[in-house]
Amino acid sequence: MSNVLVIAEQNNAVLAGGTLNTIAAAAQLAKAAGGSVDVLIAGEGVKAAADAAAKIEGVAKVLLADAPAYAHGLAEPLAALVAGVAKNYAGVLVAATTFGKNVAPRVAALLDVQQISEITGIVSADTFVRPFYAGNAMATVQSKDPIKVVTVRATAFDPVKAEGGSAAVEALAPAADPALSTFVGQELVKSERPDLGAARVVVAGGRGMGSAENFKLIEALADKLGGAVGATRAAVDAEYCAHEIQVGQTGKIIAPELYIAAGISGAIQHTAGVKDSKVIVAINKDEEATIFQIADYGLVGDAIKILPELIDALGK
Amino acid sequence: MKALVAVKRVVDYNIEVRVKADNTGVETANVKFSMNPFDEIAVEEAVRLKEAGKVSEVVVVSVGPAQAQDTLRTALAMGADRAILVQTDAEIQPLAVAKVLKAIVAKESPELVLLGKQAVDDDANQTGQMLAALLGWAQGTYAAKLTIDGNAATVVRELDDGVETVSLKLPAIVTAALRLNEPRYASLPNIMKAKKKPLETVTPDALGVDVAPRLVTLKVEPPAKRKGGVKVADVAELVAKLKNEAKVI
User: Fold this and answer.
1) Least CB-CB distance to B235: which of A99, A257, A310?
2) Given A98, A145, A295, which is nearest B159 (Cβ)?
3) pLDDT in single tens digits along all 316 residues of chain A
4) Domains of chain B listed by start with CATH number
């Protein structure tokens, strides 16, 4: 039991972003433990996702649990399934998304182990690095539990290659469905823009944008750069934009190549989610704003005036 | 129907913590503590359910040091009916908290347990899900909307890419996301009244729960610091820097 199991998130049989990064973390852990990486695909009609997982570099085996109970990723039946197979593994890893964060603790408690949340580094087979206090401190923690149940911050691990593997796909019998909850419906945000978690460029706006109308400038600049749109909690609370694009401690954690913060003061809860970006640009009319302390390039001025100029300048 | 709400005393979310010089943890001496913001939202939701006649009694529980009484009094001032402090000075990790809460649930028999989705100190985001697992109950995490109807709870859950609605069999666990509600400020008369509300103290030992930590913190370090960069004069200079120096556009 030195192998590591990755619970892969998928939607309509397509593997979710972050899967390749999580498998990269699993490969590190498996190497430290002296084992290999298996991937679990649980859903309904998800053979295509299992086939895609089998091609991923470094995957030894794919477990495919295809049953109606797993169709919507409900934590109760999925955790029962994972807990059933977990005893064959040294570790169970899942990306720290709303999917992973929902199911992993349920698995951990069923196994009577203390989960390690949102790791950013693997020191050894039982020792991990994770941020806490909104990333203001980094803890190195050692687990005494026999099975390590771990959620992985995808941006901290470089993805493995999606191709190159040829793992066997093995059917896994469904576990008894506890039938505690039912899926009623969902409203997913459809966007032509790249996924916020994976975008090369992210343009984000804060309360300084002043209105939902002005926030459209953020979207316009993002489109000019082929990037995604992000926001602070303040901007979401002020209803300039939807909650799904909130970045920070309790929103999304991102690490794009270029992050442009407009009208964002730089509260720690927000900067916790962006400070691993490669290049940070801050535009704010308050030259004392804390966002300038982490920005590579700072431009003091009103974002509402500067953004149209920037969009113009990029158009040339 | 009774609702139980779990609350945690944490370093106030506005405070930027400092790592101790000996790398054993973060500095918590002489620092302001408050109720975990997500737990405040959970308390507010329970009180609103009581005001709407869906819940008959709101019991708040905290696991922590004697000072967590202040946190419980805050919840009582917001409208909770009584409080239980499971008092311990030891480091309590989420699995242990879930086990303590399970023991409290066995005593109190609530039909709904509300918690914050995560605590802003350890950022673990585990306790509600773990409690649901230990009890064999349904879980509705990251709730943006909660409706109780007969023996079911309907929860609108915030996802990374939208929202989903699930129906939970009661009893169930619900964890509060940021936009479930806006917690009230306790009025002075209610703060005074809260001082007279019952607050019971027990220990993990008395509940028969082993709370020994499973994770050992080997060291705590400050995050890698980003160096502040340069200020540019105008848009033209910014674009030039991004093109020629950073080479990101």
Assistant:
1) A310
2) A98
3) 799 999 999 987 799 989 999 999 999 999 999 999 999 999 999 999 999 999 999 999 999 999 999 999 999 999 999 999 999 999 999 999 999 999 999 999 999 999 999 999 999 999 999 999 999 999 999 999 999 999 999 999 999 999 999 999 999 999 999 999 999 999 988 888 998 988 999 999 999 999 999 999 999 999 999 999 999 999 999 999 999 999 998 889 999 999 999 999 999 899 999 999 999 999 999 999 999 999 999 999 999 999 999 999 998 6
4) 2-224 (3.40.50.620)
Structure tokens of B66?
């004697």
Residue A113 to residue B214, Cβ atoms within 8 A:
yes
- Distances, alpha carbon A137 to alpha carbons A134, A268, A316, B19, B24, in Å: 8, 12, 43, 6, 11
Confidence (pTM): 0.94
Find chain A residues with C-beta within 8 A of B132's C-beta: 75-76, 106
- Of 2.60.40.10, 2.60.120.260, 3.40.50.620, 3.40.50.720, which CATH number belongs to A4-171? 3.40.50.620
Enumerate the residues of chain B whose CB falls inside 8 A of the CB of residue A180. Answer: 136-138, 168-169, 172
CATH class of A201-315: alpha beta
Helices marked H in B52-124 = 68-78, 94-108
Residue bearing tokens 């009103």: A302
What does DSSP say about strands B215-221 and A137-143: parallel, antiparallel, or unpaired? Answer: antiparallel
Residue B144 CA to residue B90 CA, distance in Å, equals 33
Which of B95, B120, B138 has its CB closest to that of A76?
Answer: B138
**Phi and psi torsions of B77, nearest 5°:** -70, -30
**How many Å lie between the alpha carbon of A168 and the closest alpha carbon of chain B?**
31
| Shortest CA gap A56–chain B (Å) | 24
Asked whether the beta carbons of residue B246 and residue A297 sit closer than 8 angstroms, the reply is: yes
Residue A1's pLDDT is: 74
Shortest distance between the Cα of B222 and any Cα of chain A, in A, equals 5
Within this chain, domains A4-171 and A201-315 share the same CATH topology: yes
Judged by CB atoms closer than 8 Å, whether chains meet at A244 and B161 is answered as yes
Q: Please list the ranges in chain B whose pLDDT falls under 50.
A: none
Distances (CA, A) of A67 to A15, A56, A101, A115: 17, 23, 22, 27
Contact residues on chain B for A313, CB-CB shorter than 8 A: 235-236, 239
Tokens 């442009």 identify what position? A260
CB contact under 8 A, A257 and B17: no
Report the complex ipTM.
0.96
Q: How far, in Å, are A2, A29, A38, A82, A160 from residue A33 at the CA level? A: 5, 6, 14, 20, 19
Listing from the earlier edge strand, what are the strands of the sheet with B82-87? A181-188, B162-169, B152-159, B138-149, B172-176, B112-116, B2-6, B57-64, B82-87, B199-202
Counting every residue, how long is chain A? 316
